[in-house]
Amino acid sequence: MASRPSHPRDEPSLDGVDWGVASDEHGHGREATIGELEAANRELERSNASLAQANIELADLKYAIDEASIVAITDVKGVIAYVNDRFCKISKYERDELLGADHRILNSGYHPKEFMRNLWRTIGRGSVWRGEIRNRAKDGTFYWVDTTIVPLMDRTGKPRQYLAIRTDITERKRVESLLVQKETMAQLGTMAAVIAHEVKNPLAGISGAIQVISKRLPADSSEVRILGDIRERVLALNQSLTALLSFARPRVAQLRPVSTKEVVAHPMMVVTNDPRYEHVEVQLRGKDFTIVADPELLGQALLNLLINAVQANEERGTVVVEVGQRERHVTLSVSDQGPGLPEGVDVFQPFFTTKIAGTGLGLAVVRQTAEAHGGSVEIERLEGGGTRFSLVLPRPVGADEIAPAKAARKR
Ligand SMILES: Nc1ncnc2c1ncn2[C@@H]1O[C@H](COP(=O)(O)OP(=O)(O)O)[C@@H](O)[C@H]1O
Ligand SMILES: [Mg+2]
Predict the structure, then answer these.
(1) Three-class SS of residue 383?
(2) Nearest atom (ligand 1) to Cα of 360
(3) Is 32 within the bounds of a domain?
(4) Domain CATH number, residue 85
(5) Number of neighbours of residue 248 by Cβ within 10 angstroms
(6) How far is the CA of 9 from the centre of ligand 2 (A)?
(7) How many Å lie between the centroid of ligand 1 and the Cα of residue 356?
(8) From the CB of 352, is ligand 1 less than 6 Å away?
(9) Is residue 260 domain-shared with residue 358, that is, in the same domain?
């Protein structure tokens, strides 16, 4: 006679299911009847069905989470064990590159050490961590994610894995920083007004006084030379202040239809006539278009781009100014053969400069001007080195004006 197979108490058992053997209430083994087997079989089928149902529900849940969120699972050391498609897409890595890699490859270096330490401490003791993190994608760009990290525990109550669910908040962060920038600009405007009054006017006075004194001295005296130096420095200081003022309190753009040829002519002439840049060749390419613009403001922005390009070229080689079109936009771009932009910084940030005598305001003004024209600025890294900055400007609506301007059509 077969005896009933026994299983340890804590192992999952399907109640009422016995494998060809049943026992009566006194525990005496006996052969199972056909009826009992059929009943057991039905019970098994019901269990299977509810298991399948649970599986479907789990798959649905996973599908929903994958649709809504960026999901990753790491081990306790931060080694990635699972990523969903959204994770790959936002980080710009292939799945193969991520699995087995340390999650720290996404670190952007933005958050202080204490921030990260606190995160690891929190999940290490089994608590959920929530916060906003800036990560670096494979191509070096940054993205922000609202992050919830849930520790998954083992039987002893220690974290076994970490499940991270994130949502992309890059756009919100961008708008927030724009608001902060606006606020800063407003304050800068107030400060600029004070500077204009308290500093610029006295500077003009000093410069005038130096001239008067110089005239009273013999022309060949060494004092005249020294006074000349002082005056030059005062004028340079005045120029920096003018740059700051025009950035902090830009004049309202006075828009009118104008040909791109007219816009690029002045800044190109300024650079080609500057003896410091005599070894640089400035080329003009592309067609001519009519745009609606403030030629002076736009010309100043182009001049800033040209000077940056010439400086990136170390005052040699070729700089190309190109007028192009793109659907409903005209592009004015300046390309150099320089070393490319410094990594991981916002070059448009006011006062950011890597130059000894730089103001860091050139690109801030460029962006400001592009936006005042309803346009934007694009940056491309060129193959074989060099950078292209493009002003992307809207073209006027109306068939006539969209056509290339007359000068270009003659050709
Ligand atoms: N064409 C370029 N190639 C490489 N780096 C550039 C270029 N244009 C700008 N940059 C970088 O951006 C910084 C900010 O430029 P900008 O706002 O014009 O200020 P500044 O020219 O006074 O430094 C520069 O100091 C330089 O590091
Ligand atoms: Mg500059």
Answers:
(1) coil
(2) 19
(3) no
(4) 3.30.450.20
(5) 22
(6) 77
(7) 11
(8) yes
(9) yes
Distance of CA 322 to the CA centre of its chain: 26
The CATH number that applies at residue 330 is: 3.30.565.10
**Which residue's entry shows tokens 């050391």?**
77
Ligand 2 centroid distance, CA of 341 (Å): 12
Ligand number nearest CA of 354 is: 1
Q: Does 179 lie in the same domain as 162? A: no
Assigned domain for 43 exists: no
Residues 95 and 134 grouped into a single domain: yes
Q: Does any ligand 1 atom lie closer than 6 A to the CB of residue 319? A: no
329 contact partners, CB below 8 Å, separation of at least 6: 375, 392, 393, 394, 395
Query: What pTM does this model have?
Result: 0.57
Residues 148 and 242 both lie in one domain: no
- The total number of structural domains in the chain stands at 3
CA distances for 246 relative to 171, 199, 263, 308, 359, angstroms: 29, 15, 19, 18, 13
363 lines ligand 1 (CB under 6 A): yes
pLDDT, tens digit only, all 411 positions of the chain: 444 444 444 444 444 444 444 445 555 556 778 999 999 999 999 999 999 999 999 999 989 998 999 999 999 999 999 999 999 999 999 999 999 999 999 998 889 999 999 999 999 999 999 999 999 999 988 999 999 999 999 999 999 999 999 999 999 998 888 888 788 878 888 888 888 778 888 899 999 999 999 999 998 889 999 999 999 889 888 877 887 887 888 888 999 999 999 999 999 999 999 999 999 999 999 999 999 999 999 999 999 999 999 999 999 999 999 999 988 899 999 999 999 999 888 899 888 999 987 888 899 999 999 999 999 999 999 998 999 999 999 987 543 343 444 443 333
Is the domain of 121 the same as that of 261? Answer: no
Assess if residue 60 is contained within a domain.
no
The reply to whether ligand 1 has any atom less than 6 angstroms from the CB of 342 is: yes
The number of the ligand 1 atom at minimal distance from the alpha carbon of 336 is 1
H helices present in 254-347, as ranges: 260-272, 295-312
List the domain range (segments joined by +) for residue 209. 174-248
